[in-house]
TrEMBL record, chain A:
Transmembrane domains' residue ranges: 138-157
Keywords per UniProt: Membrane, Transmembrane, Transmembrane helix
Protein name: Uncharacterized protein
Automatic annotation (TrEMBL), chain B:
Assigned protein family: Belongs to the zinc-containing alcohol dehydrogenase family.
EC number: 1.1.1.1
Names of the cofactor(s): Zn(2+)
Originating organism: Dyadobacter linearis
PROSITE patterns: ADH_ZINC
Gene: adh
Protein name, UniProt field: Alcohol dehydrogenase
Residue span(s) of domain Alcohol dehydrogenase-like C-terminal: 189-263
InterPro entries the record matches: ADH-like_C, ADH-like_N, ADH_Zn_CS, GroES-like_sf, NAD(P)-bd_dom_sf
Residue ranges occupied by any Alcohol dehydrogenase-like N-terminal domain in the UniProt entry: 27-143
SUPFAM superfamilies: GroES-like (SSF50129), NAD(P)-binding Rossmann-fold domains (SSF51735)
Length: 161, 385
């Protein structure tokens, strides 16, 4: 016990939850009779899998519920399926998923264009708010981007010559 | 319906024609969203740091709304109920839910065993769409969703879905004893609530560390704590040692997670090159500035691979590390009481109310810390009438 002689009356509720018997200090395990018995609980009804759902190989099958949006598809889907051959403990599992995410980003742009929608990158990147609240920053970014582009083009042009 | 739509790192837009969610399981409900927040951890998705974040995903795990439809097996909710929906998707039956570890449910996420299902938080957290939309599918509707008390301000209700419980559990896991010195790293929404909650456990001194002056100014007034800007401290750990009689703090809370600033090596290897699961600067500082035998409580979000932290110091100092996703459902009765009794008023942290239609700008404002943003909430058109 220290510092408690100070006056904390200006702090509403000071110490109100300090009862050590009422602080479960999660995540310490509060053992129940069903601990150490495996997956014996009465499982909720299984959600039917109407789309492809990948599952970790660290579990025997699907959880009772799951999300169904954006099932794996295209090249990114192939990479994701491959990633799920490896357990969550393997770094290649996660790196493959990150690679799939970047491929998926390109697929997204391609799909947009195929469906007649040209992505508005300026708006999607929050350009309007940058213009409103950070105009000097936006100008700096545009200037830096332009400079990098000019240097890159000049350097590539020199190599060709 | 209108919904936020992720297109890739730093790119989100409003989808005007997202299909309405449907009942896919007898325990589901469909909720019409009336408020949804952007969480600091949504920014990890937005920045492309969370593996298996698929293009087309709708984010949002902090939301409230009105029950529009229920599955055949739902008994505790009825159409028209105003509900707050914990960010954890929990079955209530598995051995982890039985232990009230609702953030660790084993029946809500097929894609990863290390994390339970979370709304709108990538396929690594179950592949569910989130609440930054007009409507959302809510599984296990009898377990998580809680009817909002009639006298509760809905701005406070939406902050009970994650921010307040996470900050409170950070303090709870710290095992704070009366008189303890508690250091909170991060003056974001969760850090602010952790600092406020530390007093409820009888902390003797609460110190918050960040580098954004406007947030430090806010938390100093909101949580009546000491604040320091690490940019002006030089060596943060040395400063904390000096100000705690050279021994260190009793409890350190990492309320930042994987996008911490303050250390060039961590920033480059974690956030830029992604050679580790983000930048672990705050956790590094927490471990090194807690006293021997002290407790480090982690609620900041990290990725699933690994991070550079001084684990040798954890051993040599005999530190206890406690960490988890907040068990929102377990904490709700206590936190509702704290709000209703006036001890805590979380809604003060809301700085921006933005129409759902302007979701791209909302993300950028929050991510780039523009316009002194602390907590933005998105309001769908139907809730603005």
């Amino acid at each position: 016990m220290k510092n408690t002689e100070r006056d904390y009356s200006h702090i509403k509720g000071w110490g109100i939850d300090a009862d050590p018997l009422d602080v479960p200090a999660y995540p310490m395990k509060r053992r129940t009779e069903n601990d150490n018995k495996g997956m014996i609980w009465e499982r909720p009804a299984q959600q039917p899998a109407m789309v492809e759902v990948l599952h970790s190989n660290e579990r025997p099958g699907l959880s009772a519920v799951f999300g169904t949006p954006n099932p794996p598809a295209g090249l990114s889907g192939k990479i994701r399926r491959f990633a799920f051959r490896y357990s969550e403990s393997m770094i290649r599992h996660w790196l493959l998923l990150l690679i799939a995410d970047r491929v998926n980003m390109i697929e997204g742009v391609h799909q947009d264009i195929q469906s007649g929608h040209v992505p508005d990158f300026f708006s999607e990147l929050g350009g309007k708010s940058e213009l409103k609240y950070n105009k000097p920053g936006l100008i700096r970014k545009i200037a830096l981007g332009s400079l990098i582009t000019i240097v890159a083009v000049a350097w590539l042009g020199r190599k060709r010559r | 319906m209108l919904a936020m739509n992720y297109r890739g790192p730093y790119r989100v837009r409003l989808d005007r024609n997202k299909p309405m969610p449907e009942i896919e399981h007898s325990s589901d409900a469909i909720v019409r969203v009336t408020r949804s927040c952007i969480c600091g951890s949504d920014l990890h998705l937005y920045h492309g740091l969370v593996p298996d974040t698929r293009v087309g995903t709708t984010f949002g795990h902090e939301f409230i709304g009105v029950v529009e439809e229920i599955g055949d097996a739902v008994q505790n909710l009825k159409v028209g109920d105003n509900v707050l929906v914990p960010f954890n998707i929990a079955c209530g039956k598995c051995v982890f839910c039985e232990q009230q570890l609702y953030g660790n449910c084993h029946e809500s996420n097929p894609e990863a065993t290390a994390v339970g299902g979370i709304f709108g938080y990538s396929h690594t957290a179950g592949g569910f769409d989130g609440g930054q939309a007009e409507y959302v599918r809510v599984p296990y509707a009898d377990v998580g969703p809680t009817v909002i008390p009639a006298d509760m301000d809905h701005d406070n209700a939406v902050l009970l879905t994650d921010v307040f419980p996470t900050g409170y559990q950070a303090a709870e896991m710290g095992g704070i004893k009366p008189g303890d010195t508690v250091v909170v790293f991060g003056a974001g929404p969760v850090g602010i609530m952790a600092a406020k909650s530390a007093w409820l456990f009888g902390a003797g001194r609460v110190i918050v560390i960040d580098h954004l002056e406007y947030r430090l100014e806010f938390v100093k007034n909101f949580a009546q704590c000491e604040v320091y800007n690490f940019r002006s401290l030089g060596d943060v750990v040395l400063f904390l040692k000096k100000t705690t009689d050279w021994l260190g703090a009793d409890v350190c809370i990492d309320a930042v997670g994987c996008e911490a600033a303050g250390d060039a090596m961590q920033t480059i290897t974690g956030r830029k090159l992604m050679l580790q699961s983000g930048s672990a600067t705050a956790l590094h500082w927490a471990i090194n500035s807690v006293k021997k035998g002290g407790i480090v409580s982690i609620v900041g979000v990290y990725g699933p691979t690994g991070n550079l932290i001084p684990i040798g110091n954890v051993v040599n100092k005999g530190i206890t590390i406690r960490a988890n996703q907040a068990s929102v459902k377990r904490l709700l009765p206590k936190l509702i009481d704290h709000i209703q009794s006036g001890r805590v008023d979380p809604k003060q942290i809301i700085t921006h109310r933005i129409p759902l239609e302007e979701v791209s700008d909302a993300y950028h404002i929050f991510s780039a810390k523009l316009d002194n943003c602390i907590k933005p909430i998105l309001i769908p058109p139907s809730a603005r009438k």
